[in-house]
Design goal:
By secondary structure, this protein is α+β, with helices and mostly antiparallel strands.
């Protein structure tokens, strides 16, 4: 599936990987911008435009 901007890991991915992945960080370049559909369906990745970074955090791509 193609992302509008780029894919980032979710909290579910962080928990399932036991810390090898960090939520809100960009996924591996080999999966950009087309992530496998199963990753999206399982909730492991989300489009960065749809990710809630919380208060006080800015996505670098918002500044460009």
């Amino acid at each position: 599936m193609k992302a509008k901007s780029h894919w980032v890991w979710t909290l579910k991915a962080e928990r399932d990987s036991r810390g090898r992945r960090q939520q809100g960080t960009r996924i591996d370049d080999m999966w950009q911008p087309d992530a496998p559909e199963w990753m999206v369906e399982q909730g492991l990745v989300v489009d960065a435009e749809d990710y809630d970074y919380g208060d006080g955090q800015v996505d670098l791509f918002d500044m460009i």
